[in-house]
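Entry 14. Structure prediction run on the chain below.
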Amino acid sequence: MINWGIIGCGNVTEVKSGPAFSKIKGSRLLGVTRRNTELAKDYAARHNVPKVYSDAPELINDPEINAVYVATPPDSHAKYAIMSAEAGKPVYIEKPVARNYNECLSIIEASEKNRVPVFVAYYRRTLPGFLLVRDLITKGSIGKVRHVLIQCFKSPSREELSGKLPWRVMPEISGGGHFFDLASHQLDYLDFLLGPAVKVKSLVINQAGLYRAEDFVSASFLFPDNVACTGIWCFSASPQSNSDIIEITGESGKISFSTFSFEAVVLENGEGRKEFVNERPEHVQFYLIEQIVRELSGGDKAVSTGITAARTNRLMDDVVAEYYKKFT
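Output returned:
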């Protein structure tokens, strides 16, 4: 039995991940902790979790806990992941893995030194709609891939407009702005789909001045087999401009889909136009957690690891490097 402990049982664990741990054969959520112990107790009561710990070390050092899920903001990912590895316990980390590539390397080093696996919550690698896109490409539905377009426009939140900044736009906590939070999913998926990017050029600026982090990114990437990618992310757009689009253009067709809103996958080629349902599971991390439990129980390897996820951190670091030079 894989007995999980969650460090940081906040919003992301309420539906996306937390309940899945106890719905998978050979797995259960045994304990939780967070900075506010009363909130941890409330979470445990609502989700039927037997144990609540006063802090992360207490959870990690409990001999009954044999796998740890780190769901805190990124500034403490490396700390708790390394602590878990040194205790000999596999660790599953929320994305992005850490604030930067160097922190990712420290996690990987601890993982290899202590011979325990590290997994990362890039769950789109396991979702049916995203696997469908991969299958359509593999089957030659659009021929050889020529170009990928990512367009992600999002209007500022009320908190950002009022100056009550969320941690996601505080680089000292998150590593960057919304680009690190949202684009990480998209870039990791392209890594899964096309292989690791081999080149990047970017324009990174702050247009709205609501916070220090970047709020506009335009980047060009080169993937294996000369597949070009153009990405535009704007986080100070009008609500009317909000968009969530990925278009994959091939020599004989196009596939369009969303990253976050689970719109239908659309295939257009010489045979016409087809729409496919992009299923959103009740718990979006279920399939990945299921893979992880299977690996920890002696089965096949999971598809999202510390090593694969670190490539996305390295790519994002390359994108924003010039912008953050002025702050160092």
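The two ends are 47 Å apart (CA to CA).
Filed with the rest of this week's runs.
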